[in-house]
Amino acid sequence: MNDSVYGIDLGTTYSAIARIGEHGAAEVIANFEGEQTTPSVVYFESPSNAIVGTEAKRVAISDPENACLLIKRHIGTEYPQEFQGTTYTPEAISGLILKELVTAANNESSSEVSKVVITVPAYFGVREREATRQAGQIAGLEVVGIVTEPVAAALSISARSEGNETIMVYDLGGGTFDTTIMKIGDGSVEVVAVDGNRLLGGADWDAALVNLIAERFIAEAGLGDDDPRYDEEFMLDLQLGAEELKKTLSRRDSASMRPTYDGRRASIEITRADFEEATQHLLAQTIEISERTLATATAKDANITVDRVLLVGGSSRMPAVKAALKDKLGWDAQDTDFDLAVAKGAAAYGQAAVNEVLSTGDEDTPVEVAADAAPLAFIPGSSATLSIANVLSRGVGVQLARDEADETGYIHFFASANEKIPYTAEPLHAGTVVANQAELDIKMYEQGGERESDVVADNSLLKNAELPLPSGLPAGAPVDITVEISAEGLVTMLVTDVTSGASVELEAQVSVLDEEQVAQETSKVAMLTLRS
Fold first, then answer.
1. Which of 15, 23, 108, 509 is buried most, with the most CB atoms less than 10 Å from its CB?
2. Burial class (CB in 10 A: 0-12, 13-18, 19+), 82
3. pLDDT tens per residue across span 389-433
C-alpha cells in the first residue's frame, strides 16, 4: 500500500499539486503539459468527456457556454451549473479538477496515490470546508486533511525559520484574499488572527483591467454606442488577454494588446500607472483587511510584533502590493513561491499525517509521537512533533426572539471570529416566548459577512432542529443552551428544556449536499472521460 499523500492547492483560477520528495523537501508535480500550475477551468466537450486545465481555458474562448471558471467562489453554496445536458454542483466540478491533478501526478511518478490534503482559505466556514472535503470524495480521493492556505504557506517556509517568530501571511490568490497572523516556534504553529474576503482576488483586478481596455478600445475603434462588452466571445478573449497583460505589467511599465470586434482592431497600450489607478480601490480593501487582522491580534496580545510579512498567491506579485504594505503599514513584505507555496505546505502537512505526527486528518490537533522519532525537515526547529493551534474563522450563533412580537428575531453569537479553538462557550440561559409553547425552533447560524451582524439575513443557516415541549409551560420557561467547538471547528450545540429534561443536539458538520447527492455527483464525475 502506498502511504504517500499529495498536497493540493485547489485554487480559484489555478491549482497545484505537490509531494514530499526523496530528500524530504516539498516539490510541485508538473501536469501533463509540463506546467507547475493548472488552470482551474473545466470545459465540457461532450456529454461524456471533459477537459481540465490549459486546453480547457483556450477552448472556452470559442465555446464559453460549456466552460466553467471560478467555481471555487461558489463551493458550499446552491449553484447548479448545466453543461451538455447534465447539471453539476460546484463540488462535482471541483472534483473534476482534483481528479485531473491526481491523475497527472500519478502518471508522472508511476504510482497510485489516492490520499490528499486539500487547502482552503483561512476564513472558509464549516460549510465550505465540508464541501471541499466532499469534492475530494466525489473525485474518488481519500481526504486525510483540510488545512488552511496560510498555515500551509507557513509550513512551506518553516524549515527556514530560526527560533520563535510572528509572521503575517498576505494571500492574494486568483479569486480569494485573506490575511493570517501566526506565531511559529519549535514544532508549533499558533494562529492568532484571520480575516479575509472570499469574493476578492486577482480575478477582480483582471475585471477592472478588462473594463479599462474595453473603454479605450471603444474610443479607439470608434464604436460609439456599439458596446462589445455585451459580446461573450469578445469578453472572454479580452479576459484571457488581460490576465497575461497584468502579468507583464508586474515586470514592465507598460504593455499593449490588439482586441478585435466586428472586423475592427485597435492597439491599446496600458501603463502600470493606469492599471494601478483603476484598481486602487481593490488594493485598499486588502490593506483594510490587513489592518483589521493586526488590530484583532493586538487586542489579544498588546505586545505582539509582526517579524515577517510573507506574500502568497500569484496576484501578490503585483508591485503595488509591496508598495502599499510598506507605505500604509510600514512592512517590508517578502516574496515566497507565490503560486506554489500553499501546495508545498499541504504536502508537508500530508507527510506529517503519514508519519503519524498528526493522529487525525485535521490541522488543529496537537499530538504526541515516540520519543525517538526523527524530526521532519518541514517542521519548525528541531522538534519531531507538529502542533497547529487554530482560531474560529467566523462567528457562530443561535437565533433568538426579543419578545412575542419579534417575528424576525436576531442572532446571539456565542463565539466570535478569531476565538481560539477548541472552545467552550458560557452557558446561555433563555426561555420560551409564549405560554403553552408547543416546541422550540432552534436555528444555528454562521457569520455571513466580513463582520458580525445580529441581523438574521446577514448570516448563513448551518443547522436547524425542533425540540417538542411539554404542555402547560408558562412564558419564560427556562431553556439552557450549551456550545462546544472542537479543535477542527466542529460546533456542537445542546438545547435543553429544563422543566422536562428533554434535549436536542445540533452538530454543524453540514454541507449543501447530503450523502445521496454526493453519491449522485460521484457517479456523474466517474462517467466522464477526462483529458488535459
1. 15
2. exposed
3. 888 888 999 999 998 899 899 999 999 999 998 899 999 999 999
How far is the C-alpha of 278 from the C-alpha of 216, rounded, in Å?
A: 13
Between β-strands 86-88 and 81-83, what pairing exists: parallel, antiparallel or unpaired? antiparallel
How many CA within 13 A on the CB side of residue 391?
A: 25
Task: Mention every residue, 6+ apart, whose C-beta is less than 8 A from residue 520.
Answer: none
The DSSP H or E segment spanning 414 is strand 410-415
Question: Cell numbers of 386, please?
Answer: 507538529
- Residue 391 bridge partners (DSSP): 420
- Grid cell for residue 420: 481560539
Residue 83: strand pairing partners: 86
Which of the residue ranges 79-83, 101-105, 375-379, 486-490 would you say has the lowest mean pLDDT?
Answer: 375-379
Strands of the 529-531 sheet, one edge to the other: 67-68, 42-46, 49-52, 529-531
Q: Which amino acid is at 508?
A: A
- Of residues 176, 236, 228, the one with CA closest to residue 43: 236
What is the DSSP secondary structure assignment for residue 22, as one 8-state letter?
T
Q: pLDDT digit string (tens) for 345-375?
A: 899 888 776 554 333 334 444 433 333 444 4
Domains and CATH numbers, the chain: 6-200+290-391+522-526 (3.30.420.40), 202-280 (3.90.640.10), 396-501 (2.60.34.10)
Cα separation of 428 and 360, whole Å?
31
Mean pLDDT of 153-170: 78
CA dihedral of 9, 322, 288, 249, whole degrees rounded to 10: -80
Q: Residue 197: what are its φ and ψ, rounded to 5°? A: -145, 115
Give the Å distances, CA to CA, from 405 to 111, 402, 433, 434: 64, 8, 9, 10
Cell of 477: 420557561
The three-state (H, E, C) secondary structure of 274-339, written as one string: HHHHHCHHHHHHHHHHHHHHHHHHHHHCCCCCCCEEEEECHHHHCHHHHHHHHHHHCCCCEEEEEC
Residue 91 has pLDDT above 50, yes or no: yes
Per-residue cell: 230:
455585451
Q: Apex CA 224: angle with CA 220 and CA 226, to 5°?
A: 105
- Ramachandran sector of residue 475 (left: φ over 0; alpha: ψ -120 to 50; beta: rest): beta
87 or 339, greater pLDDT: 87
